[in-house]
């Protein structure tokens, strides 16, 4: 299933008038709000106070966390939708972070061959990345986003009031994707985000809008990720493998998505330097900035071997070879690069210094 029309994005005070008019105009039979227990506690009441509609509303609450982003949870939600009388004219509203928008979008895209859904991201990560661009899906075991479709929501509603409900580590997790947008597409944006020392001020609202514009510009040019959209995977080839490894390894604490991607961006920047694409000066700057935001993670040789093995399952792999996005300079990236395992090991060695 594929709907490559770019979704409109509404911010703050524009969100709820649009939602009211759209629900009224489309004559939806029912609205189903998908949340996890965190957004049920901290965000749901804020949203429901703004949802002025005569359409019957049901709330479907899920367990939080990446470990529940799987097909088993989808089956439960599909069954709940059926039990509650959802039909082709029902609307799904995904109120939550990246797990909820990814899974809820996939559930809506496949229930009765597809019903409308709206994403209302409540984390910084979801606002600048996960809720945008139409990627939906779930993990298969610890392997990230192996099952899914590209299908855009009716709209994305970004209300930054929800950021006040987040702990600092969740803000930092989203900050990683904003920094990524600068690294692969816009050097000036990179420096403006680096300058954001206070991540809860009005400047953050401006930076979020700029991040959304960058992602949507790239996605509009290449909705199905055949070319330039791949640059948005910078840091994700190794980052996803690291995230998966920590997810399935009970001896390691689970890393947030942004924490794993930050490590991936440092490693892939080092690989870019080793391949003669990126200057050492720019690599050192990138590493210094990211390590000023994210704590360093220690890896054993066994960890690195296991993470490297996971690369073969990366969904960007072709003919059994993982494909990397590498930097040629801050603000510019190249796609479809193969990388020798020796370079990966050297990148890990430098990361630990």
Low-confidence stretches: none
* Range of strand content: 15-25%
Output the radius of gyration. Answer: 20 Å
What structural class should be given to the helix and strand makeup? alpha/beta
Number of domains: 2
Major sheet strand order: 4-3-5-6
What is the 3D form? globular
Q: Name the CATH class of the largest domain.
A: Mainly Alpha
Provide the succession of SSEs: EEHEHHEHEHEHEEEEHHHHHHHEEH
* CATH architecture assignment of the largest domain: Up-down Bundle
Distance between the termini: 46 Å
CATH domain topology of the largest domain: Dehydroquinate synthase-like, alpha domain
Q: Considering DSSP H and I runs of 4 or more, what fraction of the residues is helical?
A: 40-55%
CATH homologous superfamily (4th level) name of the largest domain: Dehydroquinate synthase-like - alpha domain
Mean pLDDT: 94
- Note the total helix count: 14
β-strand number: 12
Q: Describe the main β-sheet briefly.
A: 4 strands, parallel
Enzyme class: lyase
Organism: Flavobacterium suaedae
Domain 3-dehydroquinate synthase C-terminal: 174-317
EC number: 4.2.3.4
Structural account:
It is built from 14 helices and twelve strands. It has 353 residues and is of the alpha/beta class. The chain has two domains: 2-166, Rossmann fold, CATH 3.40.50; 169-352, Dehydroquinate synthase-like - alpha domain (Dehydroquinate synthase-like, alpha domain). It has a four-stranded parallel sheet with strand order 4-3-5-6. A two-stranded parallel ribbon has the order 1-9. It has a two-stranded parallel ribbon with strand order 2-10. Helix 5 (98-110) links the parallel strand 5 (91-96) and strand 6. Helix 7 packs across helix 9 (202-221), helix 10 (236-248) packs across helix 13 and helix 11 (257-274) crosses helix 14 (341-352). 46% of the residues are buried. The model has no long low-confidence stretch (mean pLDDT 94). Keywords: Cobalt, Lyase, Metal-binding, NAD, Nucleotide-binding, Zinc.
């Amino acid at each position: 299933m594929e709907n490559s029309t770019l979704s409109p994005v509404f911010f703050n005070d524009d969100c709820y008038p649009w939602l009211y008019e759209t629900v009224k105009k489309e004559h939806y039979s029912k609205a189903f709000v998908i949340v996890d227990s965190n957004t049920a506690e901290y965000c749901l009441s804020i949203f429901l106070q703004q949802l002025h509609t005569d359409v019957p509303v049901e709330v479907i609450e899920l367990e939080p966390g990446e470990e529940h982003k799987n097909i088993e949870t989808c089956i439960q939600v599909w069954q709940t939708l059926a039990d509650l009388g959802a039909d082709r004219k029902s609307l799904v509203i995904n109120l939550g972070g990246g797990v909820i928008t990814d899974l809820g979008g996939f559930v809506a895209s496949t229930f009765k061959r597809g019903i409308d859904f709206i994403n209302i991201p409540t984390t910084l990560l979801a606002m600048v990345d996960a809720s945008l661009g139409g990627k939906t899906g779930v993990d298969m075991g610890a392997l990230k986003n192996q099952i899914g479709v590209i299908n855009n929501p009716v709209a994305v509603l970004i209300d930054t009031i929800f950021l006040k409900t987040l702990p600092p580590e969740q803000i930092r997790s989203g900050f990683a994707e904003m920094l990524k947008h600068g690294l692969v597409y816009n050097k000036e944006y990179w420096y403006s985000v680096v300058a954001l020392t206070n991540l809860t001020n009005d400047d953050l609202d401006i930076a979020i809008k700029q991040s959304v514009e960058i992602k949507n510009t790239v996605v509009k040019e290449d909705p199905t990720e055949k070319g330039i959209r791949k640059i948005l995977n910078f840091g994700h080839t190794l980052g996803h493998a690291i995230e998966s490894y920590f997810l399935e390894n009970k001896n390691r604490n689970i890393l947030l998505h942004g924490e794993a991607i930050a490590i991936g961006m440092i490693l892939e920047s080092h690989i870019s330097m080793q391949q003669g694409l990126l200057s050492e000066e720019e690599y050192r700057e990138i590493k210094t900035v990211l390590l000023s935001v994210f704590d360093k993670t220690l890896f054993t040789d066994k960890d690195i071997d296991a993470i490297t093995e996971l690369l073969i399952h990366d969904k960007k792999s072709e003919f059994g070879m993982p494909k990397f996005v590498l930097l040629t300079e801050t603000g510019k990236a190249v796609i479809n690069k193969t990388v020798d395992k020796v370079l990966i090991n050297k990148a890990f060695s430098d990361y630990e210094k």
